[in-house]
Every structure is written in C-alpha cells, then in structure tokens.
Specification:
By secondary structure, the protein is α/β, with parallel strands linked by helices. Among the domains are: 140 residues, 3-Layer(aba) Sandwich (Rossmann fold); 105 residues, Luciferase, Domain 3 (Luciferase, domain 3), CATH 2.30.38; 105 residues, 2-Layer Sandwich (GMP Synthetase, Chain A, domain 3). 30% of the residues lie in helices and 25% in strands. It is built from 16 helices and 25 strands. Strand 11, helix 10 and strand 12 form a beta-alpha-beta unit. Helix 4 runs parallel beside helix 5 and helix 9 packs across helix 10. It is globular, with a radius of gyration of 23 Å. Bound molecules: malonyl-coenzyme A and adenosine monophosphate. The site of malonyl-coenzyme A has 23 residues, from helix 8 and strand 13.
Amino acid sequence: MTTHQNLFSALRARFPAALDETAIETDQGLLYSWRDIDRASAMMANLLASLDLPAGARIAVQLEKSVEAMVLYLATLRAGYVFLPLNTAYKSAEISYFVQDAQPSVVVCSSANFGWISKIAFTSGTQHVFTLDDDRTGSWLARSAQCSDQHQAVARKADDLAAILYTSGTTGRSKGAMLSHGNLLSNTQVLHAYWDWRSDDVLIHALPIFHVHGLFVALHGALYSASKMIWLAKFDPRTVLRYLPQATVFMGVPTLYVRMLAEPALTPALASHMRLFVSGSAPMLLETFLQWRERTGHTILERYGMSETVMLTSNPCKPDLRHGAHGKERRGGTVGFALPGVSVRVRDDQGRACAAGETGGIEVMGANVFSGYWRMPEKTAEEFTADGYFKTGDVGKIDADGFVTIVGRSKDLIISGGYNIYPAEIESFINELPGVAESALVGVAHPDFGEVGVAVVVAKSGATPDAAAIIENLKSRLANFKIPKHCVIVPDLPRNAMGKVQKNLLREQFKSLFRAAA
Ligand code: MLC
Ligand code: AMP
C-alpha cells in the first residue's frame, strides 16, 4: 500500500488502450501519440537512471515550452527524481539563487543559455548540464535517443517528493515548496471528478509549464482523463480562438481572458463546442467574468490555488445540489467551494474562527497541502498553525452557502498577469543603486495585467537618481515581468507611527496611473 504511488504510474495507467491515438497536437502541426509520450518518457527516464544520481536528486530545468520539455517532467517522475521548473524569464542572479539553494544534480537549459547557466551550475556542484531546445534538438534529446524505450517506473511512496516550486511565500526570499507524489495525485483525482473531465475532452494548453496552473492543473487534468491536448507554445489570443471550435476545455489567468475579449472574432458560435473555461492564479474582475458570459454564452469557472497547495477551492462545474437552490451556480467574484477533501477556514488575527461572511486569514488543510519549504524548517513551522493548517497569506471570507471570496492578501505580493512579484526583492535591488536612499514597490490596477508594480523611490540627500535609469538597470538584472511599469522619485515615503511604510497610501496615490490606458 505504501509503494507504487508514483504519480507517473497513476497518469500512465489512465492512458487509453489505443496508444496510437493522438494525445497532443501542437501549433507547429506536430502530432504526438500516447505511445510517443510513453516511449519518450521511458527513454528520458533511462537516461536519468544511467547518470547514477543520488536518491532525491533535483532536476532543474529552464526551458522554452515544448512537448519534449513536458515529457522531461514526466520522465523525472518516472525515474523517481524531483522536478524543479524555472521561469524562462529568470536571469543570472535569479538562477544562481535557485541553483545554490536547491543544489540540483542535473540542469537542463536552452542551448542559447548554456554558457552562463552551466557556469553557475558547475560552480554550485551540479554534475550534469544538458541542453534542450524547442525545435527538438539539444544534448538531452541526443543522449535520450540512445536509451531504451522500456522503463519500469520507480516505486514511490505518497509522501516522496515529486517537485519543488519556488515561490515568494509570505515573507523572505524565494522558498522551494516541496510537493509530493501524493499531493499532486490527490489533487488531480479531485479535480478530475469535480470538473467532470472526460476522455473526449480536448484541452487548449496555452499556459507556461513552470507553474502550478500549466504544469499540474492543466497537464495532469488532460493526462489523467486521457484527453487530447492542443499544445500552444505561447499564448496568443487569435491562435486560441482559431482552435476553440476543436476544443472543449480552456484554462487561463485573467489576463488571457481580457486579451481574448479584445478580439472581435470571439462569439457564442465560435465557443459553442466548448464545455469549460477555467480561470485562476489571480483575481478576475467581475467585469471580465460578465463580459465573457455576454460574449460567449459561457460562465467562467473560477478556482483558487497556490504553489504550496495546488488547488483549494473551485466554483461548481455541474450544478452542485448540496448547496440548495441559490448556492449551486458559479458565482463571479468568488472562488467557489472548498474542494472535496480540502478543509478551508477563516481566522481572525487572534486565531479565532470567523463567522460566515466575516473577513480573516484563509487557512487550509488537506492531502494536497505541501510538506514544507525546502531546507527551511523554521519558516515552514511559522506558516502552519498548531493544529496543522497552512496559513495562505490570503485574506477572505466564506459565506453561509460555503462560497469563498478572496478580498486581499496579508502577504506583500503583487500578482501581475498571473506571475508573482515579491516587492521586497525588487526594493532590495533598487536600494543598492547609487543615489537611492530607499524605495517601495506597490501594486496598482492595470487593464491588461490586472496589477503591475510601481516603484516609489527616495533619493539620498544631494543625489538625483534618474527614474528611467533605474528601470534600465533592473531590466539587465531581473526577469522582465518583475520590472516596475513605472518609477517615480519622491521626497519621502509615508510612514505610520511605528515607522512602517504605508503602502496603502501609495497604492491609493497611484491607483489611476494606468486607468487612462484602458
Ligand atoms: C509579460 N510581461 C509582463 C508579464 N508578462 N509584465 C507583467 N506581468 C506579466 N505577467 C511583459 C514583459 O516584461 C515584456 O515587457 C512584455 O510584457 C512582453 O513580454 P512577453 O513575454 O512577450 O509577454 P506575453 O507573451 O504577452 O505574456 C503575457 C502573459 C504571460 C499574460 C501571456 O505573462 C503569462 O503567460 N502569464 C501566465 C502566468 C501563469 O501561468 N501563472 C500561473 C501561476 S500558478 P517589455 O517591457 O520587456 O517589452 C499560480 C497558482 C494558481 O499562481 O492558483 O494557479
Ligand atoms: P503562487 O505563489 O504563484 O502559487 O500564487 C498563489 C496566489 O495566487 C494565492 O495565494 C492567491 O493570492 C493568488 N490566487 C490564486 N488563484 C486566485 C484566484 N482565483 N483569485 C484570486 N487570487 C488567486
């Protein structure tokens, strides 16, 4: 009972009997059968096995989206190692941090980045660096091609580590959330039933595969249901619309929906073959939710999750009869109900239970919740309550029908186009620049990305730092999505009696900065 909990085996067991059917069709016109995925993941798993890696070895990847990069994830599970995906936007300071912290045995990167990434990796003790490009070339594939296409998945227990996802968490530097085979499999099974996945579903996969949404929710959902995927290397609204008549399921962050709404071709007729539109990773404006319904006839299903927990809540897919006449429909502005097996509660600052409709910190427990942050036992302990609930850092309420609404965050975090920006990280880069005394990064509303960062900078006495130069400097050192969309030099930052910067006042001051652009 404790063995054979390998997530790959659970996914593989659900492949259709007709292995030669198409599993994936790409926007490049390539077709991959279920057999191709099985064989290619076996070859890659055999390559990993041949490297004689230590138990629990981390396989870190920074790769452009491709089916082969996805298969490398499956192969890592199959071989019993730990997958560590990294955003393709990360630059050398960011990659150095992750590689030094996670100490991966294997790093796979694009050939364009091999020079600088291999230097960082080898200096940090990584034994193997391979390349893999999105045109099906690279040393990783060349070596895998020499391996057998038969591989017996390595036995894993439910609590064995499957993946580490770096996330900003509530405070401090990026932390590796450790997710086990059991965490991921339980969430996959719950969503499979809750979202009524079927083998004749066709998923348009348009998200990046280095975060929970694209890598786990979308991918596992399709694989576990033996559903075909239409695999888009990059999100482009027109390409998605072109594929809608062939698809039944789409998943996106709110920005994707905003961009599709801007396309005149979006009509109820175009979306008539669709079964389910899912949104998550960031708050969706009610306006977007309503417009989508008007333009397509479909009600978006909003759900809520985190890197540390995978999915926590979801609006109902089918009418949910447990919740009475008024409680069963998808409700815009809410993230739905706690998923089966997930316990979600709201607590006030003193740790007391909030009544229905009262706002407090959202805390969660379930088989999907991670075991802790990589090599940070103290930080892990701080984020759990004495009775074992994980403190999400999100602020919300649960109404009498059980609908969860997120109203804010107690963590200082900006979510921009579905990517997390941790203000303390950006501020520390700005504060090091010549002429800068201090800075604050605040999130303000943006018509496309939902929220973007605005840097508010105070000059050192006698210095005159240039806002444009600050932005340029950051661009050379940080992932592009983290770059503030605006930088302003001010005489001082507003502080409260305790000396703490009042970011709420700054947010208020700059709240209309991008409104005119709408
Ligand atoms: C791109 N840019 C962004 C940005 N994405 N700026 C702020 N926020 C973002 N998210 C900027 C770039 O810096 C660049 O600026 C310009 O936009 C063009 O870059 P691009 O890469 O060509 O952008 P584009 O392809 O249009 O990407 C936009 C996007 C992408 C919305 C498609 O951001 C995206 O795929 N987001 C989804 C993220 C996601 O999957 N999140 C799930 C997290 S999981 P310049 O100035 O350099 O030109 C999670 C848990 C859960 O949160 O619940 O799911
Ligand atoms: P990440 O660290 O990237 O996993 O981001 C997780 C955070 O995204 C959560 O803690 C929430 O703040 C936010 N989030 C995820 N889904 C939603 C949603 N549907 N609505 C609002 N916020 C969300």
